[in-house]
Recover the amino acids of this structure.
């Protein structure tokens, strides 16, 4: 039984590889770019990058890639058998089986695969801001919203392994069109992409006059402009961040009703704006949560593992699969 | 260890008590009215009715209420310690602890309590239309929408025991006002109450001309009028039932995204209209479910335990609590 594992967090632009102990200590890490205009069979170009990261870590620490436990976290729909059924942000890898690809490239025999939001949830549950919380939800606010659900102390993988795609819960049945083809998905309102969408909408409606003047046009105002201006106290930007916080709370409140979650861990790129979002979101929960007054206070905190959560969780999956 | 238990399903108007074996066989049953204008301490009037049902069943079968396992299923927020924190449809019992009340009235020592939707889910999982399905959701379409979630082969009770209140997931963030004080809750669109609300709305908008003429006024058209006319093929009624089916599918699709549920069991009063609702709902799922094409077909079937599901599940909770 190995005492260490490699965890890989593969995103649309970068892949992070970490070497992790059973106690969750990171011994080493490598960051690489994921290939963009990948040709050839699905996932092969991406798998080559991962294989190189794994080999480098193995060599540096005198480990054998053939027996080393390896966990791969990926965005999208990861099947229980390890195949990536669908990955909107990693098209070139859609349909690929990374356990098979890494066996071909490295002879690796102990490769496990899991959705990246689920990985983050497992890592926070084991070593982070959800430690020992038997019922909590990990919410990753990036371009979209990913996540992972821990219920009864276990990850909710669901029938196929696709559990935790909370960003595609519709909160506005006939609302904004989503990249998934649906309408009104939560992530169109409360993610980095949601902020960008609302920023353009508000700017075009004339509700961001100062930022529009500064940027030289309504279409040029970015989500980053809004978060920066909001942290400086510009009221139009503060108002828009409160709107995003309201939508964030709306989705969280739905998860409270469905799962009776009392604890949320917020991660992902937009969590850098946590100071602007979470105080308002907590305030809105009071109105939005079913039976709020009958519950203990609902905890909404930021990830403690931050950018490492996904890779750490992928390593955890690999370690847990060890016989 | 007892081989039988009493299960009670307490609703806003009726209480059903069943005597059940470990195999889920119903040996006997009693139906009573629940008291309406109850005075005195919370829950006492209701508890007296239940105590009388339990005593009658015990006497008929030579059982001792003191040691008999008793399970009580109730609508609303049932805490893990057995207290009914909040029951919008059973106000007089809000705040009561039925294990305590039944101990006082009967000397009963083995009383367990659970939310009624959770009870129904447990019963369908053990003996019904969800048997051996490790991940499924029970959806009870009554005046509102209740439910229970089975994930990883276990009931999702959540932090406090309030899990499965799926009817209070908002599907239209600034939509119709709900009895819970929130806006846009799923149950305002896809339950018996939702049908009634949409019926009045459509009638006032002139979209139910035939039914309005028959009833003598827009305000007089009922949900039952619509289901009856729809089953007779009246197109305006068929259209409205399709609208309700669309909303039903909208909420189901959200649960698929969140939980990766591939199996739904539909119960409750409105499930008598299943023939009118479910074929359309299944059709709408194709558009509404995230990544529909990457999943195996999603099963949506009616409860096989029908009106007994809640009481059977309450008995199951009691049997499972036995040492």
């Amino acid at each position: 039984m190995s005492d260490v594992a490699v965890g890989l967090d593969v995103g649309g632009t970068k892949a992070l590889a970490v070497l992790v102990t059973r106690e969750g200590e990171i011994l080493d890490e490598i960051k690489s770019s994921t290939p963009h205009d990948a040709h050839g069979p699905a996932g092969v170009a991406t798998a080559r990058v991962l294989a190189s990261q794994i080999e480098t870590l193995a060599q540096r620490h005198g480990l054998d890639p053939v027996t080393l436990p390896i966990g791969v976290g990926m965005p999208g729909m990861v099947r229980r058998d390890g195949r990536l059924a669908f990955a909107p942000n990693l098209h070139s890898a859609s349909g690929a089986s990374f356990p098979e690809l890494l066996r071909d490239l490295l002879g690796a025999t102990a490769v496990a695969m899991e959705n990246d939001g689920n990985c983050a949830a497992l890592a926070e549950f084991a070593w982070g801001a959800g430690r020992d919380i038997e019922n909590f939800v990990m919410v990753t606010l990036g371009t979209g919203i990913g996540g992972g659900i821990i219920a009864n102390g276990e990850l909710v993988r669901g029938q196929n392994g696709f559990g935790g795609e909370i960003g595609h819960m519709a909160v506005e049945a006939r609302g904004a069109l989503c990249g998934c083809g649906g309408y009104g998905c939560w992530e169109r309102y409360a993610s980095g992409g949601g902020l960008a969408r609302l920023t353009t909408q508000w700017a075009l409606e004339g509700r961001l006059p100062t930022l529009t003047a500064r940027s030289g046009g309504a279409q040029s105002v970015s989500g980053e402009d809004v978060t920066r201006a909001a942290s400086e106290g510009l009221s139009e930007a503060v108002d828009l961040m409160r709107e995003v916080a309201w939508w964030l709370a709306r989705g969280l409140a739905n998860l409270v009703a469905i799962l009776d979650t009392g604890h949320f861990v917020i991660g992902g790129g937009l969590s850098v704006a946590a100071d602007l979002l979470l105080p308002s979101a907590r305030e809105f929960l009071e109105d939005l949560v079913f039976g709020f007054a009958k519950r203990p206070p609902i905890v909404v905190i930021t990830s403690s593992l931050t950018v490492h959560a996904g890779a750490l969780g992928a390593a955890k999956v690999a370690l847990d699969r060890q016989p």
